[in-house]
């Protein structure tokens, strides 16, 4: 009885939030009237294939003739994408794939990665999204751990996947030449394009964490049937149905996958290119009249490096949204981007494990350029100290979130720390007096130097804002006298001149003395992974090698 009352109370508490989410979805054009037959078909798609497999089926039912994807090979409609994934799903079943089997996907951004994700879902399989930056041993370890039985990959990664055991077979999604391995295109061309019979259970997707501080972990993303997730996003960012979105981040990454699927749910054309090139991205954004451009901050920085004169050569009049996530968007880059593109920059703070935490709008970024924004609809964020006590506004501590979209745990076991129902993001930060959240770094990045706590993020923001500095990173390295010391890695702007003493003096003038780096190393570029995150472990190892 007590449990029933608790569940009823929870439902009644959530109803007003669900209503607000519904209003945001209606404003975006998602809640248009549908015939009873079409509503039944949509419901059946969800029941049979789950959210991942149903996404393309519903887009095909609603807007089948609209362009669904535009990639390096051309255009496919939503109906064509649906038929392709049907044919591939039926072929996978014929090859022995069953519900729950792992299907490894090692592809760049093109139609083939969407084909594989949707087909795996319709077959009831577990799609394991593999990082295109993996070396062979990493790919093998991830596939072994996730129980991969079948592999779909671009031919350029043949050497990476050579030692992966795929007992049920392999397919090439993007062919660069001849091969004895069959292609997805050949199976699609000869396969049965009718909707597959319902699997024993809907397919799932495993996203691998970035692994910037260790071995990548698998995190199962199960889609919550609540309206809060789409409503939270649409309440902050003005996506609209039936437009076009350029998705630049890798689709194997949580941010790229989420935005691609969200665009398809909006019946918006997904524009993809296999490799990121700033000039190509802007040309495609202009040619396809994209209203939204999805980027990680490092990609936005590369667009800005083209210069305003070059950017102004493209007709970007349809562009209303530059949506950034995946790593820290510095205040300097956010401000420069709005100077060049206008007030169209939005930033999402979240992670593979906790999904979304906060969204910064253009108004937020203008008022406080370093902020990650405010928690959207249905999200509550708390700041805790090391002893688990909630901290007040303005005090730095560990960031915890509750939004109903937290992951269910790592596939290899374990999870994130949970306090009072709130899950750790792994970051530290604080709220300002206006309720805006600031992230100061990873909680495991904190260093204790001479008895003082130092978070590298504050130093990195200061350095990046310097007119001579293009990008910067700070890490803690061992020090015999202090225990640890802060070390800065700096990339200068082209033609700029700055020495280590000037960098230290700049920090010392603006921050506490103990936050001044004891060493400054100049690099041509910072090491990053495919999602644009700085690989700090490589920087630490770089110091150890010197």
Give structural notes.
This protein is an alpha/beta fold and 546 residues long. Among the domains are: 188 residues, ANL, N-terminal domain (Rossmann fold, 3-Layer(aba) Sandwich); 99 residues, ANL, C-terminal domain (GMP Synthetase, Chain A, domain 3). 35% of the residues lie in helices and 23% in strands. The strands form five sheets. Strands 2-1-10-9-11-12-13-14 form an eight-stranded mixed beta sheet, sandwiched between helices. Strands 6-5-3-4-7-8 form a six-stranded mixed beta sheet. Strands 15, 16, 17, 18 and 19 form a five-stranded antiparallel beta sheet that branches. Helix 1 packs parallel to helix 7. The longest helix is centred in the first third of the chain and has 28 residues.
Q: Secondary structure elements and their pairing?
A:
Layout: H1 2-27, H2 36-63, E1 67-71, E2 74-77, H3 78-94, E3 102-106, H4 111-122, E4 126-129, H5 136-146, E5 148-154, E6 170-174, H6 184-190, E7 204-208, E8 218-221, H7 228-234, E9 244-247, H8 254-265, E10 269-271, H9 278-287, E11 292-295, H10 297-304, H11 308-311, E12 321-324, H12 331-341, E13 345-351, E14 355-360, H13 362-367, E15 380-384, E16 397-402, E17 418-419, E18 422-431, E19 437-442, E20 447-449, E21 452-454, H14 456-464, E22 469-479, E23 483-492, H15 500-510, E24 519-522, H16 536-545
Parallel strand pairs: 1-10, 3-4, 3-5, 4-7, 5-6, 9-10, 9-11, 11-12, 12-13, 23-24
Antiparallel strand pairs: 1-2, 7-8, 13-14, 15-16, 16-18, 17-18, 18-19, 20-21, 22-23
Helix pairs in contact: 1-7, 2-3, 2-4, 3-4, 3-6, 10-12
């Amino acid at each position: 009885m007590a449990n029933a009352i608790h569940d009823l109370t929870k439902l009644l508490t959530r109803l007003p939030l669900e209503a607000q989410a519904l209003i945001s979805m209606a404003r975006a054009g998602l809640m248009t009237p549908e015939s009873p037959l079409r509503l039944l078909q949509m419901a059946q798609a969800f029941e049979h294939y789950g959210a991942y497999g149903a996404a393309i089926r519903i887009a095909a039912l609603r807007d089948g003739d609209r362009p669904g994807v535009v990639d390096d090979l051309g255009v496919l409609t939503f109906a064509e994408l649906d038929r392709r994934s049907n044919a591939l799903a039926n072929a996978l079943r014929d090859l022995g794939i069953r519900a729950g089997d792992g299907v490894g996907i090692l592809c760049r951004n093109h139609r083939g990665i969407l084909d594989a994700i949707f087909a795996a879902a319709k077959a009831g399989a577990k799609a394991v999204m593999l990082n295109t930056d993996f070396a062979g041993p990493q790919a093998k370890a991830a596939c072994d751990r996730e129980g991969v039985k079948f592999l779909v990959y671009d031919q350029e990664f043949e050497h990476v996947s050579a030692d992966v055991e795929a007992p049920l077979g392999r397919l090439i999604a993007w062919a660069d030449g001849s091969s004895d391995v069959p292609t997805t295109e050949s199976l699609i061309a000869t396969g049965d394009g009718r909707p597959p019979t319902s699997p024993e259970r809907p397919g799932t997707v495993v996203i691998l964490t970035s692994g910037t501080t260790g071995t990548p972990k698998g995190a199962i993303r199960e889609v919550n049937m609540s309206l809060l997730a789409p409503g939270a996003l649409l309440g902050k960012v003005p996506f609209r149905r039936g437009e076009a979105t350029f998705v630049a981040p890798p689709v194997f990454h949580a941010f790229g996958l989420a935005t691609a699927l969200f665009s398809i749910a909006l019946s918006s054309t997904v524009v993809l290119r296999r490799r990121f090139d700033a000039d190509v991205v802007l040309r495609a954004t202009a040619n396809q009249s994209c209203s939204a451009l999805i980027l990680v901050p490092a990609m936005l920085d590369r667009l800005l490096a083209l210069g305003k004169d070059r950017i102004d050569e493209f007709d970007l009049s349809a562009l209303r949204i530059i949506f950034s996530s995946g790593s820290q968007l510095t205040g300097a880059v956010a401000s420069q981007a709005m100077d060049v593109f206008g007030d169209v920059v939005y930033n999402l703070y979240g992670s593979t494990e906790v999904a979304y935490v906060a969204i910064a709008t253009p108004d937020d970024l203008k008022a406080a350029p370093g902020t990650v924004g405010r928690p959207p609809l249905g999200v509550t964020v708390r700041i805790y100290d090391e002893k688990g006590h909630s901290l007040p506004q303005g005090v730095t501590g560990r960031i915890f979130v509750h939004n109903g979209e937290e992951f269910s745990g790592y596939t290899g076991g374990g999870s994130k720390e949970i306090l009072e129902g709130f899950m750790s993001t792994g970051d530290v930060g604080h709220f300002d007096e206006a309720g805006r959240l600031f992230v100061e770094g990873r909680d495991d990045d904190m260093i204790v130097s001479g008895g003082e706590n130092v978070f590298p993020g504050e130093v990195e923001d200061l350095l990046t804002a310097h007119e001579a500095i293009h990008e910067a990173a700070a890490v803690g390295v061992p020090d015999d006298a202090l225990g640890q010391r802060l070390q800065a890695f700096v990339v200068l702007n082209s033609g700029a001149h700055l020495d280590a003493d000037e960098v230290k003096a700049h920090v010392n003038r603006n921050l506490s003395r103990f936050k001044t780096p004891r060493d400054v190393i100049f690099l041509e570029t910072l090491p990053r992974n495919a999602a644009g995150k700085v690989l700090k472990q490589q920087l630490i190892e770089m110091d150890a090698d010197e």
